[in-house]
From TrEMBL, chains A, B:
Protein name: Anoctamin
InterPro entries the UniProt entry points to: Anoctamin, Anoctamin_TM
Keywords assigned by UniProt, alphabetized: Membrane, Transmembrane, Transmembrane helix
Transmembrane annotation, as ranges: 211-233, 245-263, 316-341, 353-371, 408-426, 432-454, 502-525, 592-614
Location of the protein in the cell: Membrane
Residues of the Anoctamin transmembrane domain: 202-627
Coiled coil: none
Pfam families documented for this protein: Anoctamin
Any GO molecular function: chloride channel activity
Membrane topology: Multi-pass membrane protein
Similarity-based family: Belongs to the anoctamin family.
An annotated GO cellular component: plasma membrane
């Protein structure tokens, strides 16, 4: 944390944590107004943070005339950060080992609070606090940004958000810590070793959301190993015997259920340890971006913008649904083109089979796989755009409501068509393998190497300069260069795409596991490299992301479970359709189907009971959570005074909202 | 509450609330020891309640030499009841309209607390508090009950429970309030009217568990009315058209899901209003009956007997499972006998069909229905016995784990056999109708009229005496007669049987709704009389039960939902098997089955999505619950002092457990 300690204008200690970049043509009045609002005390509706212009902290080696001077560094005093942690309701380990909401009054009872609490909050937490304070910096009586008549404001509107949407503010991002990052990346991916990922360190540096993703990636990889091991002999010995496929499929289906249930426990353990399980999302402030009338949050009593719920839902359905339907239609259309190409290539191959036409047979699948990836990308950006336009209140994944469904359809529609309409198992296997392998290669390339290469090219000049300087005098990069280097890095858009990739891989493994047992092997291999490429991309390619205090993998748990239910249906149908199984019921198809349906229902019931029997949260954590709840209720009982609720509501909101509520 | 106010031995005011009856041959030492333990202060490990012998409160008109003198009345001071309510964590309406855990220190902030809080707690709550205090009256250093060497005790053992199990204590029951009961029964079932049941009054008099049952009964009845209305024309016009049956079945399946989901919301509203939704079952003391080593509850920090969890589960599986399997075997065996009888009767009827053989055809079904009811009863008592023997810790319905399953199998096995093995729709309809009607008649008879008649006969003499006395001088019955009259009434065994009956009725309606649409009509009619007979039996036949602060209908919600899932499968199969539907697919059975399966999967998916989309708790209650949680956490933050957890644990347990923990 003390890496870039410098003195601010008024002489107090200043640790830069977050960078705010404004366009170079921002008016002077706007800048000084923004800085004064950031520096102003909370009583006056300010954020009470420290902010300094980058230039004034000493020029970098690469300083040039044409560079943007409007880079500002934001920091805060230790006391301000601690009170911010209290406002955010961060949970920390208490002296008795339980997790408790942090309060300044009680700070010395927290386990890691030593001395004046210098290392109590991790840098990621400090940056999250500053981001939250900046986001909730709201307009008071300003009708527009000084110097920019066209940028309107109204009481309660988030200033940062309005500046961002109008393009005056380019970006807000947290600074890396070179030393920490070096340590982390060494233990994470540079050391060749057979150990688990340093999840606690990842959490410490990137926050809980990232750490949970990497935890899930690791868990998922290990969980697939048994499926991969069982799948290998099927491929090696070319077992086409459906007796064995039935066993494989049955094992896979039960296994999928078990691993998803156990992950919930795993995730609860991690989130409890990190303090996010007890912290309630519902008590958070809403997404600051959003405009609406100010009102009181019915739960916390805090003043914040409210959005009429029905209006929001109407927007979701009126805009998202037609959009998704259009995308689905496009996706179907492209699938049909693929089948036409496939048919044409096969006819060419059948006419005159040579080595080259054999290769040609794979071309349509590969092209189709690429097109699918491109469509996924387009859909993703379109959905992002729609979200911005819709400006939903909650910061949850609501705006990506239809994304997994669309991607599922996009990736698997052709496979379903081949399996259940064309009944062509050979083509299914071939198509599955091509899609899986192509998408894996594409993904690895798109995710890590392409951004890295782009960034290298962009920063080539600066890096060279820096290298010279580095070898010349000091091993440390000056702050100004460091900041400018990071400002040019790509922005990490969150774990959504990473989860989506795993979700689709899970689909390839589970949906048709009895047709292509090797899928699990391929996915395990992919995941092992994925750990490294994801780690590399987090450490080297992207700007540091703000941490996200997630308590679980959210909607993805549901998505994976839905996938495992669909997998039961597809696998049972595939096995029921196989000629070997049909041979058992030579006299009647009806018997065969009835048996298939009965087995399928049995498996579904078994899955359901299993889900019910395995508790979602380990016993000892359940006890700790209940104890917290019990003690809270006891504390409330003890504490209550007449008129207490209204009183606490007003003290909570007086700081940041008193000016805007009188309007 | 002031009905039987009298003066106790030491001259203070005494409201009798609960009756404790010991056998007439109990030793004097045992009685005086028990009374002193009940009267002793909480610091000394007593219950700090008032207790008086019935005889000393004035003789009744029917006083005779041979009557049991060991009837004791238990009461408590108002202050003691309020502190008991705090110990139990009762939730009451706060002055701001939210529900809060009651505390004595803060009592004047509760809405209904007026003056010295005379009518703050309902009599049912007072009786529940006294029962709880009596149940948690634990042995200290006694090794046996004084005067009864054979009745062993050990530190921490519930005294009342040991006395009950050894037969020294005959019963503990709460007293009725004549005036209240008269008012309640008038508004409940004596007035002929078309209005809802007085649920709040029922809750006030009998507690939340009873009120929720009657609320569910009423809701269920109203919810079935649409199904009944749609079913009537099918019966009247003899529509055998399966097109229409498909519509009926589809409506029924969706309707079942919707009503079960909406009930959750209804139940949450009721339970929130009554303060049981916020009160956590987990924070309750365990079932007092249970013997085990004393330890600390990991959640509340209170000292209480702990039971090793694995041992308990082992018991459940090692004992209950073979028992259930045996019962299932018996049930199957009896079903086979029924089919033999049915076959024999049919052959008689076919040989020489007369009016009498036509009647004879119904006899096996009726006999079978009676046998099913008898088997349900036997199973029920056997399960009860096993529970006593097993002595599980929690007071929840765990011990009745397999009961709904067994009853389901017992009632519906024959119908499944007829439908899916014999494929005989005419017999299915006839069998269903006979079973449904017979069981309804039997239940109404067994539930209300038989106990009433038995009790009338038993109390004839006393009632006659009382009638004379009543006409002679005063309209009020003396306390002693009142108590003896109630002591002889039958004991109400809880809502389990009532729910079970509704569960089976729901099965008759939903499982085969497309075969016998009139079932819903019969069930609606049955339920209307059921409301009256249940109300009558609660008010006139049984002893007043102790109230049970339930927050929902518990495991029955799950049972009803499972039934509605099974109903989707059965109805789809029945319709798929019907000749009319088969006629649509003349060329291939396979097409038919595939369509049936597809429709069934669609319906299941639709049910699942519906369950997911309809929130379980209404929005405004969700907000209130979140607010309570938020404010509790805030209170905990504010309050925490060093070493606080250990401190609060010790103050909580010092009262009742300090004596036994030192052993």
């Amino acid at each position: 944390l003390q890496l870039f300690v410098s003195m601010s204008a008024d002489g107090s200690r200043f640790d830069p944590l977050v960078v705010v970049e404004l366009t170079s043509d921002t008016k002077e009045e706007a800048i000084s107004w923004l800085l004064s609002r950031i520096r102003d005390t909370q009583q006056n509706g300010g954020a009470e943070l420290q902010v300094e212009q980058l230039e004034q902290l000493g020029p970098g080696v690469s300083a040039q005339e044409k560079e943007n001077p409007n880079l500002f560094l934001v920091g805060a005093t230790r006391q301000r950060l601690l009170s911010g942690a209290e406002d955010l309701g961060l949970f920390k380990e208490f002296h008795d080992g339980s997790m408790r909401g942090f309060t300044c009054a009680n700070k010395h009872n927290f386990k890691d609070f030593q001395g004046d609490g210098d290392s109590f909050l991790s840098m990621a937490e400090c940056q999250y606090i500053i981001k939250h304070e900046l986001d909730t910096l709201r307009a008071r009586d300003e009708t527009h940004v000084p110097g920019h008549q066209q940028v309107k404001l109204y009481p309660g509107k988030s200033i940062i958000r309005r500046l961002l949407s109008k393009g005056i503010l380019i970006q807000v991002f947290p600074l890396h810590q070179k030393e920490e990052l070096k340590r982390l990346s060494f233990s994470w991916y540079q050391k060749v070793k057979l150990s688990f990922q340093p999840l606690d360190d990842i959490r410490h540096y990137y926050g809980e959301g990232q750490a949970l993703y990497f935890g899930f990636l690791e868990y998922f990889t290990f969980a697939l190993v048994p499926m991969a091991l069982i799948g290998v002999p099927y491929y090696l010995f070319d077992w086409e015997d459906y007796d064995k496929y039935v066993l494989l499929a049955a094992f896979n289906l039960v296994w999928c259920t078990v691993i998803l249930e156990l992950w919930k426990r795993c995730s609860a353990s991690l989130a409890y340890r990190w303090g996010t399980l007890s912290r309630k999302k519902a008590f958070e402030e809403p997404r600051p971006g959003f405009h609406g009338v100010l009102g009181f949050n019915p739960v916390t009593g805090r003043e914040e913008p409210l959005y009429p719920n029905t209006k929001r839902q109407l927007r979701v359905y009126l805009v998202s649904l037609p959009f998704v339907l259009l995308c689905l239609y496009l996706s179907l259309y492209i699938m049909m083109i693929y089948f036409l190409m496939e048919g044409w290539v096969l006819s060419v191959h059948d006419e005159e089979p040579t080595f080259w036409t054999g290769i040609l047979c794979f071309i349509p699948s590969v092209i189709y796989a690429v097109v699918i990836e491109v469509m996924n990308l387009i859909y993703r950006y379109a959905a992002e755009f729609l979200t911005e336009w819709g400006e939903y209140a909650a910061s949850s994944c609501q705006h990506r409501l239809f994304s997994p469904q669309f991607n599922f359809f996009n990736c698997f529609a052709s496979l379903f068509y081949i399996a259940f309409v064309m009944h062509d198992m050979v083509m299914l296997r071939q198509s599955l393998a091509t899609l899986l392998i192509t998408s894996q290669i594409l993904n690895q390339f798109m995710e890590a190497f392409l951004p890295f290469w782009l960034q290298r090219r962009r920063n080539k000049k600066m890096i060279r300069k820096v290298q010279i300087r580095k070898t010349l005098e000091d091993k440390e990069l000056p702050l100004a260069d460091q900041v400018r280097l990071e400002a040019d890095m790509s922005t990490y858009l969150g774990t959504f795409d990473d989860y989506l990739e795993l979700f689709l891989l899970f689909g390839y493994v589970s949906l048709f596991s009895c047709v292509y047992p090797l899928a699990a092997v391929l996915v395990v291999l992919n995941n092992i490299t994925e750990v490294y490429s994801d780690a590399f991309k987090m450490c080297r390619v992207f700007k540091r992301p703000f941490s996200d205090p997630a308590a679980n993998i959210g909607v993805w748990q549901l998505a994976f479970e839905a996938m495992s239910v669909i997998a039961v249906v597809t696998n049972c149908s595939l096995i029921g359709m196989s000629p070997q199984v049909k041979a058992y019921f030579p006299e009647s198809d009806m018997q065969l189907i009835l048996w298939t349906v009965a087995v399928e229902h049995g498996l579904l019931a078994f899955k359901f009971i299993l889900t019910f029997l395995i508790p979602d949260v380990p016993k000892h954590i359940q006890i700790n959570l209940s104890r917290l709840e019990f003690e809270s209720l006891e504390a409330l009982k003890k504490k209550v005074k007449p008129g207490r609720f209204n009183q606490s509501r007003s003290t909570l909101t007086v700081n940041r909202a008193n000016s805007s509520s009188n309007e």
